[in-house]
Amino acid sequence: RQDARRRTVTVDAARLRPGDRIDLGAGDVVPADARLLEADGLEVDESSLTGESLPVSKDVGPTPGAPVARRTCMVFEGTTVVAGHATALVVDTGDSTEAGRAVALAARTPPPAGVQARLQELTRKALPVTLTGGALVTAL
Fold it and tell me: Which of 74, 86, 87, 81 is nearest to 26 (CA)?
C-alpha cells in the first residue's frame, strides 16, 4: 500500500483497508477483494472461490452486475495469481470479501431433517454397541 508520501510500503494483509493499492504478481495470494487498475497478462486461479478448475484471465474492463465468476475486473481474497502482474484497489477486506461471505453462508447450514436426522440418530445409538461388540470379539 502507499503511505502519506505516496511511497509503496509492504504491510501485513490484515492491515489492508478499502482504498489501499496492492501490487500482484505470479505466485501471490490475493490478500483482499480488489478492483484492477492495471493488468498485464493476469491470470488467477479462482478454484477456491468458484470451483473453476482453469485459471481465469483478468483485465481492467468494467463488468457491472456480473456474477462473481464473471467479474474479470476484480481479484478476490484467497485466490492465487498464476501469471502476469497487476495493480489493484482494495474494495473489501475480512468478512466483507466474497470468501468471507461464502464462509458465513456455509456456517448457516440448516440442521439435518427427515432421513438424514434419523440416520444420525441411528449412528449415535449403534456406534457404541458396535464398538463394544468389536472389543469383546477381539478380547476372545
Answer: 81
Confidence of residue 1 (pLDDT cuts 50, 70, 90): low
Three-state secondary-structure class, residue 87: strand
What percentage of the chain reaches a pLDDT higher than 90? 36
- Nearest CA-CA partner of 89 in 68, 67, 65, 60: 60
pTM of the model: 0.68
Q: How many residues does the chain have?
A: 140
| Sequence ranges of the domains in the chain | 13-107
Q: Report the CATH architecture of 13-107.
A: Distorted Sandwich (2.70)
Residue 133 backbone phi and psi in degrees, to 5: -60, -40
SS3 63: coil
